[in-house]
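Batch job 17 of 40 flagged for manual review because the log was empty.
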Amino acid sequence: MGSLQNKIKEFERYYGFNLRSLSRSRRFLTFSIILFCLILIITYMIMHKPKKKGYYSLELEDCINSKLERFKESINSNNILITEWPVSDRDPLSNLKQDEKIEHPPDENLFLPYVGNGYIGLSLISKEGIFAFNQKSTTFPLLYNPLANIYSDTMTKKEITYVDILSGLVGKIQCYQENKNCIEVSSSVYAHRIRPSIIVQEITLNNPTKQSVTFDIIQIFSKNWNLSTVKDDNFNNMEFTVSKGIIDVIIDGKPKHLCLSIGSTKLPNSIRLNEHEFNSKHYAISVIKYSVTLLSGKLENLEPIINNLENQVIEELKIATKIGFKKLAKEHMDAWNNIWKSGFGLSRSLADGALNGDRINASLYYIASSHRAPLIELDKPVLNQSGVDNNHVYHIERCYEGFSTLSAVKLWKLPLNEKEVSNLNYLWTLTLQKHGCKGLIDLGVEGIIQAVLLSLGGLKFTHHHLETNLNPRQLHRDYFFRKINYANLSLISIEVIVGYDNHAKLYVSLDEYIKSNEEFYACDAGCIDPPVTLEKNKRVEFPVKLTNPLTAILYISNDKTHINELKHALHVQEIDIAPQQDANSIAIHKHGHSLGGLAALFWTLFIILILIFHLFLFKLIYRELCVSNNSDYNSYDYKKSDYRRSRSTRTV
């Protein structure tokens, strides 16, 4: 207690401020303000406490953050998804198994670094290696891992993985600490989009330190194949290991044989990085070939098939290495850019458990990575059972016929391994097929992306028009449908924007003609008003209307006669501008609560401040009315008695 008083006295002497000279009310106010500031600081620290998966040095944290700086714009737009995995500190030989559970906070999104093209699939953090697709869109492991794992057990490290949605590739960034400096090891992987049997890995190392370092390299390759043979080969100044054999798979409870051959770049067992050596690049390429159909019978009878696959692998390796890694990467990225010509956007929501752009982009990417691209692949695969090439024939009638898939929780669960990617793809494919989109699915990845976009907005094609079936009472967020393919004739964009008055409006634009410059027309709910002609690159506004009985809020067609006749076929009895959207729902999406634009923490502290103010005011009134009156009365009594005492003294 004495030490506290001494400290208070030192404070008063140093700052020339005497707390004891203050009145009680001012002292109370001073301590109330100090207490309020302490509550504010402590609450802020608790609510903004960073979530850490491990303890890393400041140098490692700065290293990772500096490497991510080049992705900043793409990360903010959810085109690159970053994940720090809880298993990142494990040895590369003990990565995740397919069925292993990953512990992570429920409010944190983990994005699996998965690449695929509908022919093969591969996860960067899994030990299962390459997966092959069968005709039912399910996958099975090929028991072969072509990826080179680079590591050092003499230095501490931190690593993150990323998924580059637009480029169709995944990567890993590792930072190893050497004294006060950090050495970067980056690795990117992609499954080639138009050459589906090719997987490419690019490794980049940077050493800013004053001493050389050595990293070990591990390549697992094949394991547990029947009739397995391995041989080394060398062409175009690269060494390769070519494996061939047979693996047993169980399909529908029946044992089958899969013939396969895989050739991969053979890297050295270690890499030495000199002091101040930057941008040291190493490439690894793999070619995977397997039998299209699962076979049965004696293994010895399948050797001709295996030998043929081996010859195909060697031939494609020669072609790929001759083309060069830069051209391969450009082919791949151009193909993915073509796939993402159409897209979807959604205003960000802060509501608990709300679906946002990161999960939507990730789900679309995993679906696209599970389907072939027959319209752009160099060797056109036959997709449908009839064997007919569906080249550029859009069978779109009745797609999509059903509820908006934005509200289907199961469709937006993020996969954590290859099996869950396969399950997600199966669930999406089944949903779209059952709602009239089989014709688009048969087109491969381009068609299924279009079908998914239609399902998000309840958009439905009929024989003569496209209609938007969003509920006019539940448009609490902004929606952006970019370049929807209208019957392979044109690309049309649709926007739903909620204004400051909480009224939603529609905006339609004709972005691009695909075949001919046909005119397109649009009308709002009920088509009571005359249709409006859409002009290229010109945004046309429509109000969101509510009809009785309920109809679509927008109709688009290239048949003017048909769209003029719609008002007679819809039998609308009542029509009016849709009411304002629910203000509380909009506030929850925008701010995470229904209290307006300020955070809940602000209102909590504001209430505490009001309580403190009223306590102070009550104390002040009490002192003025009660304590002051008693003081005056006591003073009067004192003066009166003193006067009497003085008189009696004089009398004596």
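Reviewer: the log was empty due to a logging misconfiguration, but the result itself is present. The radius of gyration is 35 Å. Unflagging and moving on to job 18.
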